[in-house]
Structures are given as structure tokens and as C-alpha cells.
Amino acid sequence: MERAAERILITGANGNLGRQLVESLSGTPDQPASIPVRALVRSERAAEQVRNLSTAQSPEVVIGDYTDETSMRQALTDCDVVVHLVGIIKEGGGATYEAAHEETCQVLARCAAQAGVRRIIYLSIVGSRPDANNACLRSKGQAEAILEQGSVPVTVIRVPMVL
Question: If I label 129, which of 28, 66, 155, 161 is the partner at 20 to 30 A Cα–Cα?
Fold first, then answer.
């Protein structure tokens, strides 16, 4: 018999979709949560956004770097499932597609396998493929391939571009 998830890690939890997912999984006063949520974000400002959500069960918030294995290992401790929402739709300010998509997935794939994570759920974009002409879609496609080649089962969800 399969046990219920002990904890779900949400990366990029301070984004619009991340906040909505944290709220949904963390429950409301009328419907308490049954699954603890851990949110991995990059800054104290982002952590405050998650901490200030109106939820029945406060999510645990970890501040770290998505491309740093030490940060990722710490965030993955005791997590069974990861929902990986990290990504960008436009490069700028030092942020590159390669770092945001591919490097985060390389680190996640390695660390998740070491931590015994049972499933990774990856949010991607419709049209993503490793040979796409568009740089963003190509990078997302390469990130999907990185996760799919890893040892942890992955579910890729492709949505229209989220703005």
C-alpha cells in the first residue's frame, strides 16, 4: 500500500501559480490541509510573499538558490514530491534561459534522486522541445529532457505561456 506524501516541495512558490498552489495545498479554515508544504524561494522578499498567504497551515519556507546543490538538498529533505515552477519567459538582469531552466533541472534531478523523491512535476510551456527555434521554448524542452533522463519519475505539464 502506497503511503501519502509526507511533504511537497514547491520551487518558485512566490510566483502567481506558486502562490495559488501553496494556498490550495495548505488548506483553508473550512478545509484544512493534510499535506505539509515546503516552499523554496530565492529571497527574503519572496519568502514574505509566501508567509503572508492566507492558509490554514502555514507553509515552511526555505530561502535558497535553485542552482546550488546544498540549497536544493536542504529543501528536498523529507519531501516525496516536487512541483518545479521555476522559469522565465524573457532573459534579462543576468537571468538566462539556460540557468533558469536547464541548470535548475540538472540540480533538481541529481538532488531529488539522492533525497529519495518519488515524483517531480515540471511546469513547461506548449511548444517546448529541444530543437525549437525559439530560445525559451528550446531551453524548456532541454530542461524537460534533463528531468526525463533522470532516475526520478517526472510528469511534465505544458501550459500556454504564463505571463
Answer: 66
Q: How far apart are CA 21 and CA 90, in angstroms?
A: 23
Half-sphere exposure in the Cβ direction for 61 (13 Å, CA)? 22
Q: Is the pTM of this model over 0.85?
A: yes
97 has pLDDT over 90: yes
pLDDT value of residue 1: 43
SS3 14: coil
* Residue at 123: amino acid letter: L
Q: Decide if pLDDT at 3 tops 60.
A: no
32, three cell numbers:
484544512
Cβ count near 28 (within 10 Å): 13
CB 112: neighbour CB atoms within 10 A? Answer: 27
- Do 72 and 79 meet the contact criterion of CB atoms below 8 Å apart? no
d(CA 152, CA 72): 15
Alpha-carbon gap, residue 162 to 120, rounded angstroms = 20
> Among candidates 15, 16, 21, 48, which has minimal Cα distance to 37?
21
Give dist(CA 163, CA 145) in Å, integer.
23
- For 77, the 3-state DSSP assignment is coil
| Cross-strand bridge partners of residue 11 | 40, 84
